[in-house]
C-alpha cells in the first residue's frame, strides 16, 4: 500500500472528479507502482453510486452522469481512492463494490455501469480539460472551478474529457493519436473480475482479455 494520504492532503474541487483524480495521481505516482484511473459511466450517462458526499439522502445515493476514481493495485487487495465518498479513504475495492456500487442490486439496463480504466501514468500524459463542460450557455459556471490553471495533455491537447467519459469504440475517432492513452473499457463484471480476482503480480501476458482496448 502507498504511504498514507488523508483527504486533507489532497487537492479537491467539488464537481471536478476528473481533475481531483488527476491531482491525486500526481501524488500517487511518487508513492505507488500500480495505480489506475477509472471513469464510471454508460451511454445514457446515468450511473448510480451510493455513499457519496454530494447526496442529500441517508444512503448517500447519487445518479451521476460520470464519476472518476483512482485504483491502487496491491499484492492481495485493490484499493479505491475516491474523494467524493463517505467511505474510508482509501477503502478496499471489495467494500467499495459492496457499498458504493451496491453490486448486489440488479440494475435496469440503462443504469448498468461501464468502466474505462487507464494507467495512472497514461492519464497524467493524456488527460486534458478546458472545463467548457461546466459552463452554462451564458458563460456562467455551473460550479466553482479549481483555482489552478486548466490541465493540458503532454501533446498539447486542451480538451479530451469526453473521450474518457465515452464508453464506445468511437471515443477517439476525432483524435486517433490519443487512442493508446484511453485505456480499456470493461463491463462491471469484467472490471470486478480483473481487479478483485487477479493480483497485481500477474503479467499482462498472463491476463485474459476481458474487454476491448480502445
What does this structure look like?
This protein is of the alpha+beta class and 214 residues long. It has helices spanning 17-28, 93-99, 120-126, 161-165, 188-197; strands at 35-41, 47-49, 62-64, 67-73, 78-81, 91-92, 114-119, 184-187, 212-213. Strands 6-5-4-1-7-8-9 form a seven-stranded antiparallel β-sheet, sandwiched between helices. A two-stranded antiparallel ribbon has the order 2-3. The protein is globular, with a radius of gyration of 16 Å. The two termini are 29 Å apart. Mean pLDDT is 88; it is low at 201-214.
Number of strands: 9
Strand content range: 15-25%
Shape: globular
Q: How large, in whole angstroms, is the Cα Rg?
A: 16 Å
- Provide mean pLDDT, rounded: 88
Distance between the termini: 29 Å
**H-E order:** HEEEEEEHEHHEHE
What class, by secondary structure content? Answer: alpha+beta
Q: Tell me the strand order in the biggest sheet.
A: 6-5-4-1-7-8-9
SS element count, helices: 5
**Helical content band:** 10-25%
Main sheet characteristics: 7 strands, antiparallel
Q: Uncertain runs with pLDDT below 50, 5 residues or more? A: 201-214
